[in-house]
Amino acid sequence: MSQATRTTTRTTTRAPGRIGVVAGVVGALLALAVAYIHVADQGGFPGDKSPAYIGIGYYVLEVVAVVVAVALLVGRSRNRVGTWLLAAAVGAGPMAGFVLTRGPGLPDATDDRGNWGEPIGVASLLVEGVLIVLSLACAATLRTPDRAEVGASEEASGR
Predict the structure, then answer these.
(1) I need a labelling partner for 152 at 20 to 30 A (CA). Which of 23, 32, 57, 117 fits?
(2) Beta partners for residue 40, in sequence order
(3) Cβ-contact 58, 38 below 8 angstroms
């Protein structure tokens, strides 16, 4: 196909392989919601969650969630796969903790075993699930070359 007869249309205003501001803001709000839910669950800040290793895990999660939220608002870091994978981890970590504490229990933390319907836990699962889906979709978008770029590179190589 010659250059004169080939036409391309673009239905989006964002650059190929880039994540838009809206996705970054939504991801940041979800990450902050994860942090907020965990601050509320520990009884505020500094809070009290026992055993101590779970309390420390809450603090680490809250700090990482805030850092991720800021990173998702900055274009340069928002367009890195690693940022979105870290955002997915902000959702997956506490989700795994929820399952472990409600299922078999953790050392010195068996008081929540079987408590699957706790309202704050269910809200947390919902927020974390949406964050995971958004994060993995954005990471996949950044790893997948734009179709126009693929077509242009194939044409340039004579395929």
Answers:
(1) 23
(2) none
(3) yes
User: Two tokens at 157?
Assistant: 């190589």
Least Cα distance to 144 among 6, 17, 8 occurs for 17
What are the per-10-residue average pLDDT scores of the chain (159 residues)? 52 64 97 97 83 92 98 94 97 96 90 90 97 97 66 52
Q: How many residues does the chain have?
A: 159
Distance CA 72, CA 20 (A): 10
DSSP state of 9: -
Give the pLDDT confidence of 127-156 residue by residue, as tens digits.
999 999 999 999 999 987 655 454 444 555
86 alpha-carbon distance from chain centroid? 7
